[in-house]
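Page 42, continued from yesterday. The earlier attempt failed because a stray header line got pasted into the input along with the sequence. Redoing it now with the clean sequence only.
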Amino acid sequence: ITVFISGKKFGEDVDQQMSLPIQCNFWALADANMHLKKAGQQEDAVIGSVDVSSVPANLADGFGLMIYCNESSNYNSPVHLILHKLNEAMHQSKPLYPTLQQFTTQDYEEFLAFARNQEAALTMKAERLIQGYYTASRRVRTDPVHGSKISPIALKTLMSLSEAHAKLSLRHKILEQDAIIAILLYEISTTARHGASVLCVAPNAVFPFDQYDEHSLNQRDIYLTQFHQQLVQFCSTYAPGMSVLFAEE
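This time it went through. C-alpha cells are written below.
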C-alpha cells in the first residue's frame, strides 16, 4: 500500500510517498436484495444480469471476481456461511461442530498450506484457452461509448484461478480442465454484472445446490464437457486471429 505524505504538512518543499508491503486477502459482502426491495428491479436490466447497483462500481472493479449468491431458499442462504466464518473467527479454539467433523480445521489448514506451496506450471493448451477466451470476450463485450467491459486485469485473474484449481487438485501442471473452471467462474461473475453474452452459461453451473449424489456430479461433468466444446467454438469465432490454435480441437 502506498501512503502519500504532504511536504507542506511537515515543513518540507517536496511531497513524498511511503510504500508498505502487505500480504493479505480482501473480501467484501453486499446484499443486492436490499436495494431491490427499496428501488425495485431496473427496467433496462440486461438479460442474465443481476442488479448490483447498490455496490459502487469502483468497489466492484477493485475485486478480480464477483460471486453472486442466489438465495433460492433459507437452507441455501449464504448467511449461514457468513455466520459460520464469524463464529470461527471469534472462537478460534472452540470446535463449531465437534460431533460432525470428519476433518479438523487443522487438517484443512495443513492441506491448504501444502497446496499453496505447490509449483504449478502453465501448459500450452490451458494458456491458449485462457488467451482465446480473454480476447474473444473483450471483443464481444465492448461498448462503443464505454469501451470493453472486460477489465485488463481479467487475464491475471483467470491465470490465478486456474493455478489455484490446479494446486487444490495437487497437480504440478495447469491443465485445460483448470482453465475451463476458471473461465466458467469468471463468465458467471461477468454475466451477473453485465448480462449474458453469446457464450451463455447456466446459473450455478459449477457448484449447484443439488450436487448431493453421484448422478448430480456426473451431470456436472457432462455440462463441463459441453461447455468446453462451446468455449472452443466461441474462441474460434470471436478471436479469429487465434483460430489456428484451436484447429486440433
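Notes: The two ends are 44 Å apart (CA to CA).
Reminder to self: strip header lines before submitting.
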